[in-house]
Amino acid sequence: MADGQALTEEAVQAGLLDIRLPSEAAGGGLAEVAAGAGIGLALALCLAALLRPMLHRRQRPARLPSFAERLAAAEALPEAEREIALLRLWREADPAGYAARRATLYTQDGLPEGLGERLGERQGANG
């Protein structure tokens, strides 16, 4: 085709019918198969990247333990750890009571008497 001539529909279709590597390309038929496989793998990778969000299974969030379960777990801890766990539960269950006594918590024997029992009573009333 000479420069300046328009492409005809027949010329375009004839050019598309046999898209192949040039016969003088290194590797011959093997190179053509490798090129086809490479294009196929690239398309498969793109398709997988597009479909992955739709095919991904969502995991359900783990169930949080109930107040009663956390209280029972706190009671099973050694004394020092149990006191900290009970204070955290107290702060969650009774923020006003915790705030009122917070200043005295850090004195010697600052942990209120019967805190574990009172939290157990609250748990019975809450759930």
Helix-strand layout with pairing:
Layout: H1 9-17, H2 28-55, H3 67-75, H4 79-93, H5 95-101, H6 115-126
Helix pairs in contact: 3-4, 3-6, 4-5, 4-6
Short description:
Helix content is 63%, strand content 0%.
List keywords for this structure.
6 helices; mainly alpha; 127 residues
Write a structural description.
The protein is mostly helical. The chain folds into two domains: 35 residues; 60 residues, no CATH class. It contains six helices and no strands. The N and C termini lie far apart (87 Å). The mean pLDDT is 79.
What's the number of domains? Answer: 2
Strand tally:
0
Mean pLDDT: 79
Task: Tell me the number of helical segments per DSSP (H or I, 4 or more residues long).
Answer: 6
Radius of gyration based on Cα positions: 37 Å
Helical amount among residues, as a percent range? 55-70%
Taken as a percent bin, the fraction of beta residues is under 5%
